[in-house]
Amino acid sequence: MVLRNLGSSITNALKKLVGATTVDADLIRELKNDLLKALLAADVKLEIAIKVADYVEERALKEELPPGIPRQKHIVSIVHDQLVKVMGAQEEKLNITPGKTNTLLFVGIQGSGKTTCVAKVANWLNKRGMKPSMVCADTDRPGAYEQLKQLGDKIHVPVYGDPEAKNAIKLAQKGVAEFAKKKREVILIDTAGRHRKERAMLKEMHDIAKKIEPDEIILVIDGTLGQQAYEQARAFAAATDIGSIVVTKLDGSAKGGGALSACAATKAPIKFIGVGEKVDDFEKFDPTGFVGRLLNMGDIEALLESVKAAQIEPDEEAIKAFMTGKFTLRDMYAQMENIGKMGSIGKLLSFLPGFSQGLPEGLEDTSEENMKKFMCMMESMTADELNEPSIIKSSRVDRIAKGSGCTQAEVKQLLKQFFQMRKMMKQMKKGFGRRGAKIPNIGNLNALQKGMDIPKKYRRGK
Predict the structure, then answer these.
(1) Is 170 in the same domain as 312?
(2) Considering the entire predicted model, what is its pTM?
(3) Is the pLDDT of residue 445 over 80?
């Protein structure tokens, strides 16, 4: 989970509050200090962190309780709402108009993952039925065109560029003209990475924007930068009109709060976050859903969006078996094929209440690579073993291990995770904790596939 340390720190602070018999000024002050420490540890800018903590304290002490709502629950809601506000308040969409050619200009410092980010946005658009194209206007970095071309071939998106060209402005103009002629719906332009102190490079960025007049300029911020992100973002905002932000590398960063503060410097919303190296490790940024996962409350709407983007066709009987904890290894194999399109079991469960900050014991090792290994083991099993895993004893484990090229310990690990998952799904069906959250039923998933509205209980409050 992105910013897991920040989320667990805030959640632990809230647990003290929820578990208290009485809520007084001292307890609220303690919550304020814990919240401030958690935000600063995640490299959120000091002024922003203080503003959030002070606002939570003021509302918690002075605000009248809504009828029938316990004070503890009301304060949790205050913390949630203020974090959402800091991160942009509401989800913002890309500035794309259907039926016309749209241009998106990507800017950012060197090493921010900008070129990969351009491909991720193109892939995201491609999966939603649009016709994206990419232009390499980076004449500064050796291999820039080759990298973008390789990514374009992988996601089946055309790329324009010239490794020999020296004039980035003319190159961008030619690329836009070429794809506009071919009636490509969205043209994404990758530019050279630049530092806030490189005045010539910042001027080039300004000149490209002036010549091609993009519909939106997207600033790509490295999630590992910490508080430096604020100054970098401010310099880019001074040089050109930043319309939105993409934060990359948030999956492995404890300092992502600094990058999230960048929206305060640019007054531009964060629209996407990068959560891994692969082109599919990319999420639309919704402040409400993000904070929900941060506080271990889950994000069902994002889960349904991922299912739709992966073009998964739900099998009613199989999912019903999963949701009641009555599935077999054969069912698990079929679902692993679907889950593989979404990344991993860990990514899938991160959207569910109670699992946003980590997986239950026995399910930690669920990477895409391990899922493929598990599937290989299942392919070495008999029909009886797939249908009734409890019959798999030592001699069968040995045979399966040899047939799949794995160790006996790995086969035992697969079985352990299978039974652990069955147990977990039964618990999920009953609901989680005091919030009583439940996973969506098959009807909800099928409704989504048919383009119907998401059921009201899974929608975010807007």
Answers:
(1) no
(2) 0.66
(3) no
